[in-house]
From TrEMBL:
Transmembrane segments: none annotated. Residues 130-166 form the SWIM-type domain. It comes from Lactuca sativa. InterPro entries: MULE_transposase_dom, Znf_SWIM. One of its GO terms (molecular function) is zinc ion binding. Signal peptide: none annotated. This is SWIM-type domain-containing protein. Keywords: Metal-binding, Zinc, Zinc-finger. It comes from the Eukaryota. PANTHER family: OS01G0519700 PROTEIN, PROTEIN FAR1-RELATED SEQUENCE.
Length: 337
């Protein structure tokens, strides 16, 4: 490169590179790569605003350092967003249950063990401590970071103390219903059930019956004794209703009636059917409507036919004079000799 010219040097944001460019390319114009700037800004900005464990005073210090590093102190949008920081930064409302999914409950202050957990960030100079209170026997735990109250999931500080205190399983009270497979109400499962008569009250009774049955089954699922009793009572009810249900005039439903019930519609069935399936004639050249026989079937059919007499060997076999094995063999021997 010709050092007498005035080149424009494009580099990453680095203090050592800046000084090197200044010393080597003295007449150059040093500029920073916008791609690196935006990539770093997005990464740093995301970590700053999404850290729910960061206290407000720590956030304000980090915000100031970030604005100074990227020369954004005079940017109006960042100024406006910093003014309303208490409305969108999680650290300012970490004590509020997100989306109203959890309610705070009163608790006794007796029997609590208190621990202080240090939270270190390897990429930051800031250190923070959180107060963790635990009742090991009752399996009740509370952390000052209030991550569970805000997000519905226990924080790493709580898990650290739980393992230290010998708690092997997550307490049931800290597994919210929103994370379970049965979060959807059973009422929605049977909302599509239709009644033959279209009676809304009858549909509601059917849905309630399904819901009651599954609720009872969930309660006794893990208790073999109660589950056996529940199954016996179900069998007794089934036999009782079956004996009352059978009557001489009862007839089974047709396929059409089953489909109508499934779709929730009523289709009148005429007494006489005047429209029939048309008789279809084969078009000219459409061929014979038979499947292609296999090789074994062809061989079997040929074996039943009476063979013609071969004039070469004088036998009734499935070959002629041209393909007769004896004639072909004799001709080959004469040629070799």
């Amino acid at each position: 490169m010709d050092l007498d010219t005035n080149p424009t040097v494009l580099t990453d944001q680095d203090a050592a590179i800046k000084q090197t460019v200044k010393n080597v390319f003295r007449n150059s114009k040093h500029r920073l790569c916008m791609w690196h700037i935006m990539k770093k800004l997005k990464k740093r900005f995301s970590k700053l605003v999404w850290d729910i464990n960061m206290k407000p005073d720590v956030f304000e210090v980090k915000w100031g350092l970030l604005m100074k590093e990227f020369n954004l102190e005079d940017t109006r949008w960042f100024k406006d967003m910093f003014t309303i920081r208490d409305s969108w930064i999680p650290g300012y409302f970490s004590d509020i249950p997100m989306c109203g999914l959890m309610k705070t409950t009163s608790r006794s202050e007796n029997g609590w063990e208190v621990y202080i957990v240090q939270h270190n960030n390897s990429k930051s100079d800031f250190k923070s401590g959180f107060k963790v209170e635990i009742k090991a026997e009752e399996k009740e735990i509370n952390c000052s970071c209030e991550h569970f109250k805000c997000m519905g999931v226990l924080c790493i500080h709580a898990f650290t103390i739980m393992m230290r205190c010998g708690v092997k399983e997550i307490p049931e009270r800290y597994i919210l219903k929103r994370w379970r497979k049965d979060v959807i109400s059973r009422n929605y499962r049977f909302s599509s059930i239709q009644s033959d008569s279209g009676d809304c009250e009858n549909v509601k009774l059917v849905n309630d019956s399904y819901y009651s049955f599954e609720s009872c089954l969930d309660i006794v699922r893990d208790d073999k004794k109660r589950l056996t009793l529940f199954a016996e009572k179900q069998q007794m009810l089934l036999k009782e209703f079956e004996s009352d249900y059978i009557s001489p005039g009862l007839k089974s439903k047709t396929d059409g009636e089953v489909v109508c019930k499934l779709l929730g519609v009523t289709i009148p069935i005429p007494e006489e059917i005047n429209i029939h399936v048309p008789e279809v004639q084969s078009n000219k050249g459409s061929g014979i409507k038979k499947r292609i026989p296999s090789a074994s079937e062809v061989a079997y059919e040929n074996s039943k036919k009476e063979h013609r007499m071969c004039s070469g060997c004088g036998k009734r076999v499935p070959h002629n004079l041209r393909t007769c094995p004896e004639r072909v063999g004799a001709a080959k021997s004469a040629k070799d000799s």
